[in-house]
Amino acid sequence: MHPLSTNANCSPATRLSPTILDKLTILTAAAKYDVACTSSGVDRKGDGAGIGNTMSCGICHSFAADGRCISLLKILYTNECIFNCAYCQNNRNADVPRATFTPEEICTLTIEFYRRNYIEGLFLSSGIIKSPDFTMDLIYQTLYRLRTVYRFQGYIHVKAIPGADPILIEKAGFLADRMSVNLELPTSDALRKLAPCKSRKTILEPMRQIQNGITQNKNELTLYRHTPQFVPAGQSTQMIIGATPENDFQIMSVAENLYQKFGLKRVFYSAFVNVNHNADLPALPGGPPLLREHRLYQADWLLRYYGFTVTELLSEDKPNFNIYLDPKCDWALRHLEFFPVEIHTADYQTLLRVPGIGAKSAGRIIKARRGCKLNFADLKKIGVVLKRALYFITCNGRMMYPTKLEEDYICRNLLSDRSQIPRELREEGYRQLSLFDDVNFGGDSNVCIPMPKQY
Amino acid sequence: MYVFQCPNSIDGILSGVYDAWASRYGHKNIQLSSDESGELTLFSEYIPVTADFEKSQKVSRTLIRRLGVKFYETICATAMSDGSCRKLTMDKANAIYQTIVMALSLPDGAKVLEYLGEPCIACIFELRRQTYNEGHHLLEFLRFTELENGILFAQIHPKNAVLPILASHFTNRLPLENFMIYDAPHQTAAVHKASKDYMIVDASSINLSAIQSLSADEEHFRNLWRAFFETIAIPERQNLKLQIQNIPKRFWADTVELRDRL
Predict the structure, then answer these.
(1) Do A62 and B114 touch (CB under 8 A)?
(2) Shared-domain flag, residues B147 and B234
(3) Are B204 and B228 in the same domain?
């Protein structure tokens, strides 16, 4: 039994309702389409008098059958909802079983799972019950109980309910590590059509409030070291991909804006799954647009860690990502004038732009080359993916193999290695792709589809 | 060539470093070996080393004083690894010895760890990464079981001796719990008493019958966890290859949720 149990005589299981298994199943299923499950961004040691700590690298405790990480106990407080968003399985018109937790139940589940090292903390979202204020208050009560009565110091990610009173959001923010407000859809037109109860305004307002809160709190922390921290792991948001006809350029521009103007830590992209079989929404017979989602994440990393801007990767004329090549390779092939790059003299920013060299290996190269000359075998040990990098780098003035610096040549060679072709395309085979010309990518002629090498 | 054969432990390897240094045969003529079953070569003289706590402490102190705690931690993490890496060209004890020799001969010695072009550094880098990676994996995948007496018990099967990494993490995380982590292949255990620091003890004579009696709630919370685990996956996105890539199968047997899928 956890030593901080409020009543030492009753076992934790007795604090749960008899139908807890059903409740947990319903409210987990209702929360599973929310993608943000990271536990990263804040380092906090335990104070020795409670339970829990956090690590800024984040810890994933398991991986579900879809390969996604399970880091937090991701649940809804309730799946009762007064809103009618078309893409959401919990909307008020949907015929699904409904359930509601109590704060005590959520605390007990979190603590007992956490002690057994099943989870890294709590992810609490909710359907809108009665009103946004009422819902936000329930969430706040739960967090307060968890943080004070149970002295839980692990990770908490909480949703700010759009339209809730700013005071409630602020109070919750002082208890949570990360807050998020879901942008849901990239454009306000799409939002109006699919989520009539939400508006761009009610979503962006709390987002702005949290941003201001974080900035203000940082200023206070420089003055008073022990000021309580407000959302120390930053805020995130998510967009649904493929439910509405926006192209990648629009989506990435929105993301770039959010990073620059709202100071977001992460933007998540969620491939659309038509759970409600709503006639207004695309049917997607080939399954959710996972490859597109993957490309968006790759580009998102390029924005955050590699110093790229959206206009370098995409443009009005070429609004979608190449499905065969990752965005960085694609960019490099269109900008061969920057290459080849000499490993021993190039600066960090230049190294970062080489396909096959990531932030870690670029940093290692910079340090390692001070001590001794590197060769290609060393680069491999350092972590450079030579398969991709070899066309773009020289080491001591030489390339690894004699290669041509031509777009077609490099593209052909890169794709002749089947492991470099995305899984979805490999399994689909080329023929089917040319027949349907890829429903997910708008079927435009800008996507360069190189001829596969014959075997 | 003189080959110092050291026992495969931190103390053993550091004692080997001490003996090799003190032997004055010249660094070029010395090799260390932590592999007891390794093939012998002709024209080499083999010198057995016994693990000596005092010698190892002397080496540790020198390393910390001259090269800093970070360097020392790297050496320890390397010594904790099992040393069987397919990319490896060097015995781990020998890599440690050569790295120490190189670091002590340079003015800013701790920097040598960045010179990945050197074979011995590349080897240290790889082994250290192996240890920390597995340590991190087990921070993720280790599962505690609540026993009848309220103690949390976990059993792990790591390749590298990662117990200290886990013990310090969970001591900070669960300060008010009594817990024990049992490393089955290495026959060691980390024991933590509430509000105290942890201890690493030899567990070769452990009696595992006590872990059969679980607390009354244990099965209930396991079932809840399994239900959560099953439900959280999105069927339309199923990708078992990715799952295995993220949680390698060798960890499954010690988890609650994947044990039955093996």
Answers:
(1) no
(2) no
(3) no
Please list every residue in chain A whose beta carbon sits closer than 8 Å to the beta carbon of residue B238: 65-66
The verdict on a CB contact (< 8 Å) between B229 and A64 is: yes
pTM: 0.90
Whether residue B151 lies within 8 A of chain A, CB to CB, comes out as: no
Q: Are A125 and A34 in contact (CB under 8 A)?
A: yes
Q: B211 and B253, same structural domain?
A: no
Q: How far apart are CA B175 and CA B156, in angstroms?
A: 21
How does pLDDT run along chain A (455 residues), one tens digit per residue? Answer: 555 554 445 688 888 888 999 999 999 999 999 887 788 989 999 988 999 999 999 999 999 999 999 999 999 999 999 998 888 889 898 899 999 999 999 999 999 999 999 999 999 999 999 999 999 999 999 999 999 999 999 999 999 998 999 999 999 999 999 999 998 898 888 898 888 888 888 899 999 999 999 999 999 888 888 888 999 999 999 999 999 899 999 999 999 999 999 999 999 999 999 888 888 888 888 888 999 999 999 999 999 999 999 999 999 999 999 888 999 999 999 999 999 999 999 999 999 999 999 999 999 999 999 888 899 999 998 999 999 999 999 999 999 998 888 889 999 888 888 777 777 777 665 444 444 444 444 434 344 444 444 33
Mutate to test the interface with B, among A74, A116, A276 (most CBs of B within 10 A): A116
CB contacts < 8 A (A, B): 182
Q: Which residues in A lie closer than 8 A to residue B246 (C-beta atoms)?
A: 60, 63, 67, 69
Question: Chain B 230-259, CB below 8 Å of chain A: which residues?
Answer: 231-243, 245-247, 255-258
Domain-terminating residue out of B111, B133, B155:
B133
Segments forming the whole domain that contains residue A233: 12-241
Nearest alpha-carbon partner for A156 in A301, A8, A36: A36
* Residues in contact with A189: Cβ distance below 8 Å, sequence separation at least 6, in sequence order: none
Distance CA(B108)–CA(B66), nearest Å, equals 9
| Chain A contact set for B174 (CB, 8 A) | 51, 115
Instruction: Indicate the number of domains in chain B.
Output: 3
Looking at A33-152, list the stretches that DSSP marks H as alpha helix, in order from N- to C-terminal side. Answer: 103-115, 132-148
Q: Are residues B27 and B124 in the same domain?
A: yes
Q: Which residues of chain B does A57 touch, with a Cβ-Cβ cutoff of 8 Å?
A: 136
The residue range of the domain holding B233 is 216-262
Interface test with A, best of B225, B254, B259 (most A CBs within 10 A): B225
CA distance A92 to A96: 9
Is B66 found in the same domain as B114?
yes
Distance from the Cα of A151 to chain B's closest Cα (Å) equals 11
- Closest CB to A372 among B117, B176, B255: B117
* Nearest CB partner across the interface for B231, out of A13, A28, A109: A28
- Same domain for B209 and B222, yes or no, is no
- How many domains are there within chain A? 1
Q: Which of B73, B106, B133 is the last residue of a domain?
A: B133
Measured over the CA atoms of residue A127, residue A131, residue A136 and residue A139, the dihedral's sign is negative
Residues B27 and B118 in one domain: yes
Q: Are residues B115 and B150 in the same domain?
A: no
Q: What are the b/e assignments for A302-325, b being 16+ CB within 10 Å?
A: bbbebebebeebbeeebbbbbbbb
What ipTM did this prediction achieve? 0.93
Question: Which of these, A28, A2, A4, A27, lies nearest to A13 by C-alpha position?
Answer: A2
